[in-house]
Amino acid sequence: MPTAIFLLVIAITLLSVFAIERGQSQRETAQLTSRAVEVASALERRANANSAYLRSGAALLASLDEVPAARFRRFVSELRLDADYRGAEGIGWAQVVYPNELDAFDDMMRREAPGTPKLHPALGASQPFAVPVTFLQPDTERNRRALGYDMYSEPVRRAAMDEAMRTARPTASGRVVLQQEGRGNAAGFLIYMPVFVTTPTGREIKGFIYSPFNADDFLASALELEEPGLYGVRIYDGEVTPQNLIATFDRDSDFGTTYSEPIVIANHNWTLQLDAPGNRTLTGLSMVTLIFGLLVASLLMLVVRMLTRQALENEAALRWFEEQASIRNSLTRELNHRVKNTLANVLSIIALTRRRAENLEDFAEGLDGRIRALSATHDLLTQSDWGTTPIGAVVDAELAPYLQAGEERIEVRGPEIQLAPNDALSLGLAIHELATNAAKYGALGSSGGSVRVSWHKSSHDRVRLEWTECGGPPVQGEPARGFGTDLIEKIVAHELGNPVELTFRPEGVHCVMTIPVREPTPFAMRARRGAD
Fold it and tell me: What parts of the sequence cross the membrane (predicted)?
């Protein structure tokens, strides 16, 4: 009862703590979701601002027959790019160059571009045209590394340009490494806006005005608009995999909760992931609830335990007195039963001994030995409170008078198997008769004789015990039947419930007994008052 009350109060306390923590978790998830939407909005605003510049540039460049370097530089300077353009490497122009225009493009780059760059890599046989970086402002050493690079030769950039031509909208590429990085491997992306010209046959692509972005710089500029607080931020190109990671902003903290939000940046699908710091401890309210619950549960358990203990002591006292009265009655019935069985065995032994004895001395000697055999086995049973007795102990008790120091004439071998009291008494009588016969007429009566007693389980509830004599006087046929033979083959076999095989071999007596392994009738010889 005390334990049940304690567990009940603890269960209610834990349920309350669980509800509090679940509510706190839901609040944190809502905050995380709200912060993810805010960061996604900041990223989209950065991308939309760039797209607006690219749209205006595409409208201007579409009206020009040629795009000279001076005119492009003037256009970019007139845009007066403000803080909304942070994170980009600049604005570039990449014209479409067909295979028959490659030499003319290289001549133009030698005249217009710094450092006389050439188109690279060489135009592939499967490419309909090249889209090399023609101009890129601002003119920095970093941006000059990209001049002349055919962006249409690279699959990720080509896919973005094809999608931009199809939709006529600013379109972002997937994860790439910008040419500006040189030997570096920092992730980046580009936003392309196609520039078309109208011809008599329809609309043709003239080139692309675009902006390259270092992904980490782009994310940092967006986070200037929306501070992430304690959250970590990651951007993935499409699915969330390590290979698709574009940019990351981590806090020095162990993150426990992660929230992912799909976003669209310039007509391209990204995944924004926010990581909230892990909370390894309970909230203050949960701790107060838990401590209060433990105190209440402990106090109730103590009070109920004191009351229950007193009731149990009173009940145990009454039960002890009832048990003592029952034990006295059972003890009287058990003693009557044991005495009757013992007297019946003694009477049978006296009757058979008298029938076989030729004189008073033989009668007294035979009766004395058999009564002592019963007494030895009774001593073993008394030591075990008339519980189970090992076979080895019964055999050793009956053979003890024939064991002499320094001699190994008797070999006893077998596993430890417990016998019920009545079966132990019967086995003791049989071993006594076999030992007596061996001492008078067999192996134990000569100096070179030996006896081996062994047993093993023949089934789960049967034991096979063998008595084997050798080295004694030769046995000349089967001797006249005596009391020992009748005792073993009749009384012992009847008590054990199995026939006894008694064979008189020339080398000595051989006896096989099958003994049942059964539980004794349970009986409490003593009882202890269970006050505690």
Answer: 282-304
**Parts of the chain belonging to CATH 3.30.450.350:** 2-277
Closest among 221, 171, 209, 175 to 191, alpha carbons compared = 171
Token pair in block for residue 294: 């433990």
Quote the CA–CA distance of 147 and 420 in Å, as a whole number.
104
Quick one: pLDDT at residue 126?
85
Highest mean pLDDT among 242-246, 383-387, 422-426: 242-246
Strand 188-199 with 171-172, pairing: antiparallel
Q: How many residues does the chain have?
A: 532
Longest dimension (CA), the chain: 152
Q: Rounded to an integer, what distance in angstroms lies between the CA atom of residue 325 and that of residue 140?
A: 110
Q: How far is residue 484's CA from residue 45's CA, in Å, rounded to a whole number?
A: 114
Predicted TM-score (pTM) of the model is: 0.52
Backbone angles phi, psi at 112, to 5 degrees: -100, -35
Query: DSSP letters of 226-283?
Result: S--TT-EEEEESSS--GGGEEEEE--SS-EEEEEEEEEEETTEEEEEEEEEEP--S--
Q: Tell me the HSE value of 498 on the side-chain side, using a 13 A CA sphere.
A: 18
Per DSSP, which regions of 62-166 are E strands?
A: 91-95, 135-137
> Which residues, 6 or more positions from 410, have their beta carbon under 8 angstroms from its beta carbon?
399, 402, 403, 444, 450, 451, 452, 453
Q: Which CATH architecture has domain 327-516?
A: 2-Layer Sandwich (3.30)
Beta strands in 112-254 (DSSP E): 135-137, 171-172, 188-199, 202-214, 232-236, 245-249
To 5 degrees, how large is the angle CA 132–CA 138–CA 144? 45
Contact present, 334 and 523 (Cβ < 8 Å): yes
At residue 184, the 3 state secondary structure works out as: coil
pLDDT, tens only, 95-152: 999 999 999 999 988 888 887 788 999 988 889 999 999 999 888 888 999 999 999 9
Give the C-alpha separation, 395 to 470, whole Å: 18
Contact 290, 15 (CB under 8 A): no
In a 3-state reduction of DSSP, which class is residue 384?
A: coil
- pLDDT of the residue at 525: 42
Could you tell me the fold of the domain covering 2-277?
Beta-Lactamase (3.30.450)
β-sheet bridge partners, residue 510: 468, 503
Neighbours of 387 (CB within 10 A): 15
As to burial, measured by CB atoms within 10 angstroms (0-12 exposed, 13-18 middle, 19+ buried), residue 382 is exposed
Express as a percent the part of the chain with pLDDT over 70: 79
Closest CA to 484 of 444, 451, 435: 435
14: left (phi over 0), alpha (psi -120 to 50) or beta: alpha
Question: Using H for helix, E for strand and C for coil, what is the string for 26-37?
Answer: HHHHHHHHHHHH
Q: Which residues of the chain are in CATH 3.30.565.10 domains?
A: 327-516
The pLDDT of residue 528 is 45
